[in-house]
Amino acid sequence: MKVAIIMGSTSDLETMSGAFGILEDFGIEFEKRVISAHRTPELMFEYTKGLKERGFGVVIAGAGGAAHLAGVAAGLTTLPVIAVPMPTKNLGGLDSLLSMVQMPTGIPVATVAIGGAKNAAILAAEILALSDKEIDGKIAAYREASAEKIRNTVI
What we know:
This protein is α/β, with parallel strands linked by helices.
């Protein structure tokens, strides 16, 4: 299964690039698109409605400000949606975070930390690992390598 990474603007690309590397390390195929829930609602609808049929298993949505991208995606698909709130100039990303976590009952969106694209990718991998032992093994090795790095740190 693949991961769809959508972002509201090209300005989100730098933050969202953290997810690309993680997914590449785990050998997970992904597609990235800029789609605005507000400026291109028809594209949002068309793209999101066909994800499951095209072999996607998880959506990662990064957006700032009003940050409706993840919520709209979750309303259009039954795939798990993981939201990445973007840091913003005016409120530091708190506006994005609050927008993403206040979803109505029945339309859940998992939300990571502001700017947390790497954790979004790890969570997406963990979801896919429920039915893929190879990904599960890569996640276990990743965690062990992280723990080993800490164990070997001398101050």
